[in-house]
Each structure stands twice: as C-alpha cells, then as structure tokens.
Amino acid sequence: MKPILLFVMTAGLAAAQAAPIEAFRIRAHTRFLASDLMEGRGVGGRGELLATEYLATQLALSRVKAAGDSGTYFQRVPLVGVETQPAARLSAAGKGNPAEFRWIEDFVGVTHRQQTQVSFDAEAVFVGHGITAPEYNWDDFKDADVRGKVVVLFTNEPQSEDPKLFGGRALTYYGRWTYKYEEARRRGAAAAIIIHTTPTAGYGWEVVRNSWGREDPQVALAAGAPALAFAGWLTREAGERLLAMSGHGVDALLKASEARGFRPIPLGVRLRGAIPSRVRKIETRNVLGIVPGSDPALGDEAVIFSAHWDHLGIGPAVNGDTIYNGAVDNATGCAILLEIARAWAALETKPKRSALFLFVTAEEGGLRGSEYYAANPVIPPGKTAVALNFDAFHPLGRTKDIVVSGSERTTFRPMVEEAARRFGFTIKPDPRPEQGSFYRSDHFSFAKVGIPAFSVHLGNEFLGKPPEYGAEVFKEFNAKHYHQPSDEFREDWDFAGLEQVARFGMLLGRMAATAARLPTWNPGDEFLAAREKSGVRP
Ligand SMILES: [Zn+2]
Fold first, then answer.
1. How far is the CA of 363 from the centre of ligand 1 (A)?
2. How far does the centroid of ligand 1 lie from the alpha carbon of residue 531, in Å?
3. What b/e string do you get for 83-99 counting C-beta neighbours within 10 Å, with b at 16 or more?
4. Which of 73, 226, 238, 385 is 20–30 Å from 431 (CA)?
5. Ligand 1 center to residue 454 CA distance, Å?
6. Strand pairing partners for 522?
7. pLDDT digits (tens, 9 = 90+) for 117-134
8. Between the CA atoms of 53, 347, 14 and 11, what dihedral angle is there, to the nearest 10 degrees?
9. How many whole angstroms from 456 Cα to the centroid of ligand 1?
10. Omega of the bond leading into 286 within 30 degrees of 0 (cis)
C-alpha cells in the first residue's frame, strides 16, 4: 500500500471518531487574539483584559463552566515585579585585596525577597553543581551546613553519557539554574551565585545579561516565607577573580565537581551585596473552564488542557512596529484549546473524568501562571490524570509527524502511541534533548507537582512539501520572528494542521479521561516521587 493512501484511510478513521473540530474556527480565534487590538497580550495591561475576557466569553458560549475564583472564569494571580537597579553592588573580601564586581559587566541577578533594599554579608562556599539527587546517589552538599551562607556553583549537571546518571546526554531538571536557586533556598542559604561558563550554561553571557537585566515577575511570597536575598550570576572572568582569592580556578573546580565524592569547599571569602530594587505589584489572571465528568466516582478527577495566553505586550520598536502580537506564540495554542473545549462540551456523552481548560498567564516571565495554578489547583494533582500543553504552532498545513516529548516518561505513552497510530502520525523525538526544553514550558509546572504532563507539538514534515521545508521554516521563524513584533497573523496561513493536532489532543484527553487507572511517571523518573506524594490512587 502506498504511504499516502494509508494516510488518507487512517485520517478518515480518526475523523469519524473525532468531534467536529474545525480549522476555520481555530483560524478565527488566532486572528483575533493576535490582532493589534490585543496589544501583544502583555501581562497586567489592557491587552490582558481584552484577551482574557475573550477567552472567558468563548468558554461561556461553548457551555464550558466557570472554574475560577468565586464562580468566575478567572483565577487571580498576584505577582510581584522585581527589577534590580543599576546601583547594585557585589564585592568579595578575603585575606588580600577585596574584589569589586560591576553590575551587568560582571554580575546580574535579582532578590527573591521582594524588598526594595536587600543586603547580605556572608561566608562563601563552593558547592559544585549544587545537586542533591538521591535517585542518582548524588549529593554535592554532603554534610555541609550552608545556612546563612552564600553558595557559589556551576549550572548544568555532571557530564555523563551513562543514561542511568542524570539521563545521559539529556538535561534533567537538576541541571537547570532554577533548580539551583530552589535547592539553595531549601538549605537556608542567604544567596546563591552561579559562575557562568558558555559550555555549562549552553549560551553566552549576552543571553544571561539580556534576560536578567530586566523586571522579574515573581509569585508573591507568603508572609514569613524564606527567600534568597540574591539569586545571581557572575561572568567566568569575575568567577576566576573570586576563586583566585582562595587559590582556586574555574577549570579545576569544574573538574572537581564532576566526581561523586566532591565535597563543598569553603572559599575563606565573604561575599557582600547591596541590592536596590524597584518592586511593584502586578495583578494578572489565569482563565479556567471545566466540563464535568459523567462518572459519579471519577468526576472529581480531571484531564488538564493548557496553553499560555500571554505574550510580550508592547516593547522596543522593530521596523517601526512595537506590538509583539505573538500569533504563533501562543494565539495558536489558545485557539486550539478553545476549539477542543467547544467540542468537548458538545459531546453527547461526556467522558468519565472532567476536562479542565486552563489558559495560563505569565509564561514568558518564567512559567508563573502555571506555577501559581500548581500551587493553587482547582483539581488536586493526585486527581489529575494528565496535563496536555499546547504552545506555538505554525499554520502551514498538515504534518506527517508529531512531537510529544516527555510522554515516553509516563505510563500514558501506550495511549499516545495508539492515538498517533489512528491519526497516521509518526512520533518524532525531541531534536535537542541537551537543551532541556522539557523544563521551559508550562507542562513542567504540572510535572513538578507530580502530574504526568507534556506538550503536544506538530512535527516538521509537511504534507505536499519537500522534506527540508519544515526545518527551514522553523529556522527562519526562530531567527526573524520568535519573540519579535513580526510574529503576526498571516492571511495565507493554512490551519489544517492545527485542526489535526486539536483532534489528536482531544483524543488523547478522552483516552486519559476514560482510562481505568490514572497515568503516572515511569519507575526511576525524577517526577515519580512527586506523583506518589500527591496521593494519587495506586
Ligand atoms: Zn509560548
């Protein structure tokens, strides 16, 4: 049988089973959400009010019930914007001459205390990669007490080709800088400072500088909650100067921290910081709707569909355009979610479990809306079957392939494979696992509280196009339009591929909503402990 004929037959089978999800609706939602009227859907502005009202209105029109605060479609997300001021100072004092570090040139960072003036003066301890991972029998801290101290460390994880150690080539969460600050805070450190190197970070200092020299939207701290006085980065050169004060060097310490037997090294140096910040409240919101399940016993369990509604708002002009429309990123994902929600609510017989449609805020500011939902869930994580995230789709027609990276780490995978088979999709692996992209999208916030979660992406083999077409389009998008005002709606877009992916997502959701057992993470996975802690039914 010719491949094309096989595709048509399986697509027909899938269409017969799918709800009436239609491309023209996904197109219309995308067009509206990406229009200049939405002002780039920036967090905390007029664009937010318009976009979130639109989403709520569409859910209401589709008979999806409100699942937010006090009977509304909205979950208030109080954020605090913290912006370090250029007068920030950092210095190191040891036996010899003190070292001064310059803001932006030598160091960047932000306080997590959400106060306008924070200072610290504490002993510095080098802690390797700053990782405590019992499942890999790895502990960089050993018995060292770092309470009240400044931990100095590298990002990333010990390098190993062994898939049994930190996932081999793929980056695990232990390698991400966000983990480093969280672990330092759990251990009561006063501050945590990462020494940047291009190989350990995976990018140059300009990237660190550009993403840190601006306002950081943080989830509001509960009263009395512990927080780092400073979470920062030093350039490699500044790091060399700091380490040299105690007779050490970057390369030697990098090498030392590759070993399981590594022990923290007190640097015999005090790090002093004075960090002035502009601090302001940001009021923003997630949008939530629910279609209740039909089973009296399982109806309090749910499947989550998520997409971030925010983009970058209004910003620096590029070619005279200041509106960062975010058409691909992520009006497309919101449009897909609205269409799945409409189709789900129209099902004559509802699946056993409920379906929660969650449009999260402040993804671009560090997954804040999804993090807030995970801490304040409508359905407890232990009663959530899976979370399917939709972020950034190119409306360029149908693809033969699909990317569902992360699903292979869960017991839900056989259903994903069955659904892909029905749609004639080939499942493609994450093309760059060492970049740790799994940890950079909203599904990760759900995984951290144990929910089996992953993003659904189109592949890049477009039907009727030469094989290299998809890769070229993505390359061009990343270079010219990603996070730029030119990520705009185009009238010539073909939404057939988004219709397919929405139908595929709906089928995945229906499978999860009717499965006999709640899916979980596979044995040995870094999120399994969180799943078990969430009280999931075995
Ligand atoms: Zn996005």
1. 7
2. 26
3. ebeeebebebebeeeeb
4. 385
5. 14
6. none
7. 999 999 999 999 999 998
8. -50
9. 12
10. no
Q: List the beta bridge partners of residue 79.
A: 219, 282
CA 129 to each of CA 144, 234, 433: distance values in angstroms, whole numbers, following the listed order: 14, 15, 19
CA of 308 relative to ligand 1 center, distance in Å: 7
Q: What φ, ψ does residue 391 adopt, rounded to 5°?
A: -145, 110
353-393 residue pLDDT tens: 999 999 999 998 889 999 999 999 999 999 999 999 999 99
pTM metric for this prediction: 0.84
- Ligand 1 center from residue 270 Cα (angstroms): 40
Residue carrying the six token digits 């006085």 = 229
In CATH, what is the architecture of 82-280?
Answer: 3-Layer(bba) Sandwich (3.50)
Distance of CA 157 to the CA centre of its chain: 19
- Amino acid present at 27: R
pLDDT confidence band for 11 (50 / 70 / 90): very low
Distance (angstroms) between ligand 1 centre and the Cα of 244 equals 41
Q: Would strands 117-126 and 150-153 be described as parallel, antiparallel, or unpaired?
A: parallel
Asked whether the beta carbons of 287 and 299 are under 8 A apart, the reply is no
CA of 485 to the centre of ligand 1 (A): 14
pLDDT at 35 over 80: yes
Cα 358 to ligand 1 centroid, rounded to whole Å: 14
Give the number of other CB atoms < 10 A from CB of residue 314: 15
Contact predicate 457/403, CB 8 Å: yes
**Residue 322 backbone zone (phi > 0: left; psi -120 to 50: alpha; other: beta):** alpha
Q: Tokens 């023209």 label which residue? A: 24
Which tokens in the block code for residue 216? 């950081």
Indicate the CATH number for domain 3-63+292-457+499-533. Answer: 3.40.630.10
* Predicted local confidence at residue 337, as pLDDT: 98
Check residue 434 and give its pLDDT: 72
Ligand 1 centroid to Cα of residue 288, in Å, is 18
Q: Cα–Cα distances in Å, from 219 out to 114, 312, 522?
A: 10, 18, 30
pLDDT digits (tens, 9 = 90+) for 73-124: 999 999 999 999 999 999 999 988 899 999 999 999 999 999 999 999 999 9
Domain positions in the chain: 3-63+292-457+499-533, 82-280
DSSP-derived pairing of the beta strands 107-110 and 230-234: antiparallel
> Residue 391 C-alpha to ligand 1 middle, in angstroms?
5
Torsion of CA 124, 126, 127, 129, to 10 degrees: 120
The per-residue pLDDT for range 510-529, each reduced to its tens digit, is: 999 999 999 999 998 889 99
